[in-house]
Design a protein that fits this description.
With about 160 residues, this protein is an alpha/beta fold. About 40% of the residues lie in helices and about 15% in strands. The N and C termini lie close together (about 10 Å).
Length: about 160
């Protein structure tokens, strides 16, 4: 049973895009944190928010590799995507990750998190990396509640 999960967020390579999209990502991460905290699981970010850049995305392959050097490879990881992302920012780190991987996205007509997540999923599948996936508008709908379950044990079935 996991008591803690690590959250990472892959973004765009363009600073301007990451700054514009950051509020949507921060809101989704707050929702994810609330859901997992409600299941008795602590959420930690795998990389810091960069105040100087004005966002908290991994914005290059080098940034992703550096972040994954500090992430425990035995900790379950959730790749949270509210916006478009470049898979190359996280794929190298995920290829060496040993714990369960969950890709998670918003369902929004304004922000293409689902499209970015599906792009990542295609790359994970092609690389033979096992993962689970879920998306939702607010993670309070019947599907998300059913999928996450009412306990931490049920929630981590998603991560298998």
């Amino acid at each position: 049973m996991f008591n803690e999960i690590c959250v990472v967020a892959s973004g765009d390579s363009r600073l301007s895009a990451n700054r514009v999209c950051w509020p949507a990502q921060a809101a989704l991460e707050a929702t994810v944190t609330r859901v997992f905290n409600g299941l008795g699981c602590r959420v930690v970010r795998g990389h810091p928010v960069d105040a100087a850049k004005g966002h908290g995305f991994l914005d290059s392959q080098a940034a992703g590799i550096a972040a994954f050097r500090t992430i425990d490879p035995a900790a379950p990881i959730v790749v949270v995507e509210a916006v478009w992302q470049y898979t190359s920012h996280v794929l190298a780190g995920l290829t060496r990750h040993r714990a369960p991987i969950l890709t998670l996205a918003n369902w929004s007509g304004e922000w293409p998190g689902l499209v970015g997540m599906l792009n990542l999923n295609g790359s994970l599948t092609k690389a033979g990396i096992p993962y689970s996936t879920i998306w939702s508008e607010a993670f309070d709908d019947d599907f998300a509640v059913f999928r996450f379950g009412r306990s931490r044990r049920e929630a981590f079935e998603v991560l298998r």
